Automatic annotation (TrEMBL):
Record-given protein name: SRPBCC family protein
Gene3D superfamilies given in the database record: 3.30.530.20
Organism superkingdom: Bacteria
Species per Swiss-Prot/TrEMBL record: Streptomyces coacervatus
One Pfam family this sequence matches: Polyketide_cyc2
Length: 169
């Protein structure tokens, strides 16, 4: 795990990686299926493609509904911003020009299997976390740190689930 930045405006990032004993094609089928993601996440509850889209392509949109004990329930619209089949799948949350977050999966063949990484950037656009920061600006660094640790924990769990599914065939 690696994360950088301490303030929301720093656009902190976190990245987790794993090696999977499965071919990239099998791993790609899992990471590019956004409908599968709620089964792999405690926070993300549901996902649905919008505008008649049935899968990822640059510009396609999907609606995600999430729930967090401290933050409540919310929904966001995400825009696919990178899509290179078999290699990269990334989306911006809310406004692609000023996203509240960017998420990215990258994979490549390595050592007879697949290296998979999940990366995310918080901000620069406003998110639900900004309300907490607005209420307690003196605690911004702690708020950002705690949320980034949650992301790191959830991303590690997601990759663990993807690894298990891919290796099971």
């Amino acid at each position: 795990m690696r994360w950088t930045g301490a303030h929301y405006t720093d656009k902190p990032t976190v990245e987790v990686r794993t090696w999977i004993d499965a071919p990239p094609e099998r791993v790609w089928a899992l990471v590019s299926d956004v409908g599968l993601m709620p089964d792999l996440s405690d926070e993300l509850q549901s996902v649905e493609w919008l505008d008649g889209a049935t899968g990822p392509a640059v510009g396609a949109r999907f609606l995600g509904r999430s729930r967090h004990e401290a933050l409540g329930e919310w929904s966001t619209t995400s825009y696919v911003i990178e899509y290179e089949p078999g290699h990269v799948f990334a989306w911006a949350v809310q406004d692609p020009a000023d996203p509240s977050a960017i998420w990215r999966f990258r994979l490549h063949a390595a050592d007879g299997g697949t290296d998979l990484s999940e990366w995310m950037q918080m901000g620069p656009g406003r998110s639900g976390l900004c309300a907490a920061i607005d209420r307690m600006p003196e605690k911004e660094q702690k708020i950002v740190f705690v949320r980034m640790r949650e992301f790191e924990h959830n991303m590690t769990a997601t990759l663990k689930h993807i690894k298990k599914l891919a290796e099971a065939g």
